[in-house]
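MFS transporter
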Amino acid sequence: MTQQTAQLDKPKMPGQIPYIIANEGCERFSFYGMRNILTPFLITSLLLSMPESMRAGMAKEVFHTFVIGVYFFPLLGGWLADRFFGKYNTVFWLSLVYCAGHACLAVFENNKEGFYTGLFLIALGSGGIKPLVTSFVGDQFDQSNRSLAQKVFDGFYWIINFGSFFASLLMPIFLKQYGPSVAFGIPGILMFIATVIFWSGRTKYVHVPPFPNNPHSFLNVVKTALNAHQPGQGRTGYFIAVLGGLLALASLTLIPSVGVVAAFCLALVLVLGFGGMGAWLQLERARGVHPDEAVDGVRAVLRVLVVFALVTPFWSLFDQKASTWVLQANDMTKPEWFQAAQMQALNPMLVMLLIPFNNLVLYPMLKRMGVELTALRRMGLGIAFSGLAWIVVGFMQLAMDGGDALSITWQILPYALLTFGEVLVSATGLEFAYSQAPLAMKGVIMSFWNLSVTIGNLWVLLANSSVKSPAVTEYIKTTGISVTAFQMFFFAGFALVAALLFALYARSYQMLNNYRKS
C-alpha cells in the first residue's frame, strides 16, 4: 500500500464538528452559569420571605425539581426531532426558547412567578436540545470514520466542562458584586451566542431527516407484544404492565407530600419499569406481525434501558454537589473572598485534566497490562467511585457535627473521586447510548439517557421527603448521627449497591454497532 493510498484510507474528521463544539461550550457556560448560583440566590434573595430554617430545604427542593425538568424534556425534544422537524430545526427553535428563559431570570429577580417561568423555559429549551446536540454529533460520522467518534465525544464532554469551569468560577463573583440581573443576564448572552454559532454551520451539517410514522416503531411493537394472545400461554407480561399502570396512578396520590413533579416522575418510572418487564416477557409474540429487525431492535433498546436504570443512582449523587455539597461548604471555614458555590469549579477543571489523562496515559497503560476497560466496565467503576466520594463527605459531616471546624479544602478529595466517576460514567455513556441505539431511535434513546438524570434527582426528592416522616426521623435519631450525615451514607450505599448490580448485568451484555453506513 502506498503512502498516498494510506492517507486516503485514513479516517477524516468532519469539518463541521467545530461549529457544534463551539456551540456546546457557550451553551454549557450559560446553563452552568445560572445553575451553579441558583441555590445561593434562592437562599439569599428569592426565598427571604420564608423562615430561615426552611430556606435551605426549599432551595434544595426547587433546585432538584428544576434539574428533573431539564432532564425530562429530552423526551419531548427527541420525539419532535425524530418524528417531525429533524434535529437541526428542533435545536435551533428550542434554543430561542432557552434564550427567553434566561431573559426572564434576569428581569424577574424579585418576582417568584416570573423567575419560575424562566426556570421552566430554560428546562424546556435546555432539556429539549440536550439529547439532540449529542446525537447530532454522532450523525456527522459514518462507518468510515466512526473510530474518531469516541475522541469527539470526549472532546465534546471536555468543552462542556470548559464552559462549566469558567461559569462556576465567575458567576458567584458576579452575583455577589453586581447582583442577580447581571449574574443571570451574562449566561443569557452566552446562550444567544451559542445559537448564532449553531446557525452559522447550517449548510455544512449532515442532516438526517426525521423518520416517518412507522407501523413497526418501538411503541407499536411493544403494544403488539403485550396484547398478543397465544393458545396455551398465559399473559404474565400484560398483567405486569397493567400493574405498573395501576401503581403509577396510585403514585399520583403522593402529590401533597412529594409535589407534582416528583409524583409525576415516579409514575413515569413505574410505567417504564413494569411496562418494559412485561414487554420483555412477551416480545417474541410480536414476530410475524412485525419484522424480525423491528423486534430485535426493541429487544436491544430494552437491554439498554436496564443499563440506564442502573446508572440513575450515580446521578442522584452527582447533582447534589450543587445543592447538598454547597450547603455543607457554607458551614466550612474559607477565605472571605471565596464563595461556597465557587468550589464547583473544581469539578470541570478536574474533568478537563482527567479526560486527556485517561485517554493518553491511563487507558493505554492498562491496555499494555492486559486490562481492557470496556465502556460498561468504565461506567460500573464510575458509579462505585461516586459512592466512595459520598463516604468521604459523610465522615466530613460527622466531624463538623461533632464541633470540628473543617476547611473547605477538605472537599477537594470527594470532588476528585466524584469527578473521576463522572468521567468514567458520563463521557463514556454519551457514545455508548448513541452506538447502541437503532438508527430510527437515535434522538429518543439519547432522551432516555438524559431521563436517567431525571430519575436520579427523583431519588433525591423522595429521600428528602422521607426524612420528614416522624418514623424515619425517630429511626435516624437512634443511629446517633445527624439527618444530613445519615442521608450522605445512605446515598453512598445506594451507589455501591448499584455498582455491584451494574457489574453483574454488564457481564452478559452484548455490545452493538449502530452507526449509519458511509
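thats it. DSSP finds 20 helices and no strands in the chain. Residues 74-107 form the longest helix (34 residues). bye
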